[in-house]
């Protein structure tokens, strides 16, 4: 049940031309009420629909880095009001448009949210600007004088080298072409930098700046704003695919072919409308992606190495809450979800997931999304946090089902991450109630330290870490600390950790939420972090080397954040 309801929100926004005629503006007051008997934090978001542009809207009081979102704290059963401001720039074609408001609980973003009614508006025809008055005669005289001066000094100018043209010629160009043109025109040290959102096509130059030393900066329209931690998979050595939910709730993809990311400055829109983060798995050259839609059904798409892909999202009958989990054992694809009764359910298929409503009930009662892993061709292990915040495991080996859930102990504040560092091995990590990371492994015969105890690894975290194995017996554990920086700890099959049992290697950055990581090649792992402005950053660890080194990170949209 949602914690909020819209108490008052008009469904029509009136736009009026500004006195200068450079825009049409309007304001809309709305109020949202908490319907739970406790204090609750919520995030209000403006979601444009159709051809409406995100940069047309802002919420009064929202930060400039994210003007369409504002965080509010509601007292028990109390209402709060806020104001939506719309500004449509001159030249926008006259048309009807709309947007919606969404309120999401900060504590449960997967299931605790409510969408408001569609708010419509009408962009009116633009008034023609008056024609400029005739120029004064002195301008013609100035032109004649300039011609005379040019004739007299023509010989001298011909002896000088050609100089770059006006940098404003690059405005509106695609960034890659603009950089090539700037170099050809002999501008000094041209660089593409992420500029403020201007409503232009992502990856196009919106403004330029020429420094006193001659350096040219091209400010580029940033790409899609991402609001969920990407799902990272590798379907072939050196290749990476990221899938994430954008601010408009569509699902987006970005592909790395071993050399460059594509699309270069944005994400590929895959459609859909997701209320959960995306889950993905890759095996045998096939990538499968799932997410929960607005109707709480699971939707599935696949992408194959030969270029074959499902054209649309396939709806799988049934109702699910929380982020689903995907895992392959051999050629069998397994989808595991939490139902509305808090129990776990499983559906499997050989080449695809059957769309019918038959699910295998796995029982249990869980408060976290499921986690799954396969450490062999016939084995699946499934995990979930129970109502006591302890971790539970159930496995399927061939046709044999363990038939029940076994407690692995621990008391966790967020979902546990799982990996397999080798045949018959399980590796688990989670965040305890003290904010530190805890670890447990199964070595093929025994649980270490034992069935219900965990090894404390230290650190201070607010959300779940991510665990990945980049080579047999090797593990990398990543997490975002309470200061927003990414940290790392590496381990091996002996149980030793580097830099030590409780210390962490600081990788820098400024991130929110959960990291993503994938083993994309022999002894290589790529880790990704999501910044507060919806930008995804990458760091590669190959052998003992990091790229970028130190605390540096690379934007995957190809832009710099500063000169």
UniProtKB/TrEMBL annotation:
Keywords: Membrane, Transmembrane, Transmembrane helix. Pfam families: DUF8189. InterPro entries: PLL-like_beta-prop (IPR058502). The chain crosses the membrane at residues 138-160. Residues 280-539 form the PLL-like beta propeller domain. Residues 543-563 are annotated as: Disordered. This is PLL-like beta propeller domain-containing protein. It comes from Plantimonas leprariae. It comes from the Bacteria.
